[in-house]
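Field log, afternoon session.

UNIT: design team B
ACTIVITY: writing a sequence onto a fixed backbone
BACKBONE:
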């Protein structure tokens, strides 16, 4: 059984404040988050259209960013709304939701001062 690659799917992802077509979501290979693991994520399950303990997951995502010395530039309310939006945009009631925040590509050094913080949210059947 062949698996469908995650970069070759139909659907929508939420990226930095907007829904974008799944295949159009891109990350530069010289991103600080990729090279220095300056990224945080959550794994969430949705059942019957409701993301289980959504606010707890969102708050943990925000707190995890703070541990890595970055502030996610969206509020918990905005992240919750975006998570629900991407779930609906993909026509899912049951599924997996993955928010991830990371440092951008403005600087590639151990010190990440001045890098932008990005947020993406994906959802797929589970």
């Amino acid at each position: 059984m062949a698996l469908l690659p995650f970069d070759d799917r139909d659907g929508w992802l939420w990226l930095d404040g907007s829904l974008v077509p799944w295949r159009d979501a891109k990350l530069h290979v010289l991103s600080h988050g990729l090279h220095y693991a300056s990224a945080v994520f959550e794994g969430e399950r949705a059942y019957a259209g409701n993301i289980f303990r959504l606010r707890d997951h969102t708050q943990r995502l925000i707190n995890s960013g703070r541990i890595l010395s970055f502030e996610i530039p969206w509020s918990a309310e905005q992240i919750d709304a975006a998570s629900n939006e991407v779930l609906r945009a993909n026509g899912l009631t049951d599924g997996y939701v993955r928010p991830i925040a990371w440092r951008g590509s403005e600087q590639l050094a151990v010190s990440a001062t001045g890098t932008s913080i990005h947020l993406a949210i994906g959802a797929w059947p589970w």
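LOG NOTE: DSSP finds three helices and seven strands in the chain.
NEXT ACTIVITY: expression trials, pending approval
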